[in-house]
Design a protein that fits this description.
It is a single chain. 36% of the residues lie in helices and 10% in strands. By secondary structure, it is α/β, with parallel strands linked by helices. The chain has three domains: 57 residues, no CATH class; 176 residues, Rossmann fold (3-Layer(aba) Sandwich); 104 residues, Irregular (Cytochrome-c3 Hydrogenase, Chain A, domain 2). The strands form four sheets. The protein has a five-stranded parallel beta sheet with strand order 4-3-5-9-11, sandwiched between helices. A two-stranded antiparallel sheet has the order 1-2. It starts with a strand and ends in a 5-residue tail after the last helix.
Length: 384
């Protein structure tokens, strides 16, 4: 439904989808666009451009393919609240095909898929959820009588851009873990002639997907990517840098086992295998599920297992200590479970005091000996 309203830039008479019709005030709509600009690392002034993109443009066609996965990324999308999934599907994008969300099934669904691909060749965004098996010509994942591999090779070349959502589509995910019986792999190892944006996570944040799509539609280009094809606005910093437990790490306060005193007090989980020091993601900032603070693994007391980092999640044992890219805590940091209230025992203090005293006396004697040697050399005539 459209109505004549004043757009965010002050121009009148343009046909817009009034956010109020969807139960969203103009103020909240502006706040959403401003927050999106901030997430993308864009100037706040770009909020108007994002708003115009949402309100004025023809909704971009999106085709969402499911391969080897658990549908967790779609489930995460269904629980988003800003925007809600119905606002995303009905107002922001045109979701032409999704096996999970579409009403059609069977031949009807397949016909809708191919019609959208042909009608929007070179214009649609292809979202891939799940890894692609390569072993035995890909027979371990088939939809509508076709392998995932053949479907991807058929549809991907006709897309404007490809988004691999989740760790499975990005680099194979849990099914690619050793010994990888189906030879599961990510999209970008198969598609080489099209831009592939990796949005890893298990599940991936729906807001990273929305921000990526809005960036592409607003600026007509892809966001800046890192060496692994991830948008830097979401994966440009280590989890370790923004973690609420980081002060405990720097102070040497660690949980040594689940349920110990340090764990109950919210101390750093590095010794329990937290992969935050080697994992790039915005989980501490973005959180999950829109249920308030601490809604991410570390916030709930479990170590990060590195699902957004290739070669870490599903590759390293969950409780193996991370490779630290910043400062590794020294081994002399005290165990948090050691007794601290009483200080040194009398016997220990005596030993330490005696050792310190002996060192001081030795130092004084050595210094005195040096002075006597220097004085003797000054009084002795030089050799001729």
């Amino acid at each position: 439904m459209s109505t004549d309203v004043t757009n965010l830039s002050g121009n009148k008479g343009q046909k817009l989808v009034d956010p109020a019709i969807r139960g969203v005030s103009r103020r909240d709509f502006l706040k959403f666009c401003t927050a999106t600009a901030a997430i993308l690392g864009l100037p706040i002034g770009m909020a108007d451009a994002i708003a115009d993109t949402i309100a004025n443009q023809k909704r971009p066609p999106v085709i969402w393919l499911h391969f080897q996965e658990c549908t967790g990324c779609t489930e995460s999308l269904l629980r988003a609240t800003h925007p809600t999934v119905e606002h995303l599907v009905l107002d922001l994008i045109s979701l032409d095909y999704s096996e999970t969300l579409m009403a059609g099934a069977g031949h009807q669904a397949e016909a809708a898929l191919h019609k959208s691909v042909e009608d929007n060749a070179g214009k649609f965004i292809l979202v891939v959820e799940g890894s692609i098996p390569l072993k035995d010509d890909g027979i371990y994942c088939m939809i509508g009588g076709k392998t995932a591999l053949s479907i991807l090779n058929e549809i991907a070349p006709k897309a404007a851009a490809i988004v691999a959502i989740g760790s499975c589509a990005s680099w194979g995910g849990v099914q690619s873990a050793d010994p990888n019986p189906t030879e599961a792999t990510g999209v970008d190892s198969i598609i080489k002639d099209k831009p592939v944006i990796n949005l890893p996570g298990c599940p991936a944040s729906p807001y990273n997907l929305l921000s990526t799509v809005l960036y592409y539609l607003t600026l007509k280009k892809l966001p800046e990517l890192d060496s692994k094809g991830r948008p830097k606005f979401a994966y440009g910093r280590l989890i370790h840098e923004n973690c609420e437990r980081r002060p405990h790490y720097d102070a040497g306060r660690f949980a040594n086992q689940f349920g110990d005193e340090g764990h109950r007090q919210g101390f750093c989980l590095y010794k329990l295998g937290c992969k935050g020091p080697e994992t790039h993601a915005n989980c501490p900032v973005q959180l999950f599920g829109d249920v308030g603070s601490n809604a991410w693994p570390v916030g709930t007391g479990h170590p990060c297992f590195g699902c957004t980092e290739k070669g870490v999640g599903f590759c390293k044992p969950i409780h193996e200590q991370a490779s630290v890219f910043t400062a590794t805590p020294p081994a002399m940091f005290p165990d948090i479970n050691q007794d601290k209230g009483g200080g040194l025992t009398a016997g220990a203090a005596l030993v330490v005091g005696a050792a310190a005293g002996a060192a001081a006396v030795s130092g004084m004697k050595f210094s005195k000996a040096l002075k006597e040697t220097d004085k003797a050399q000054e009084e002795t005539p030089a050799d001729k």
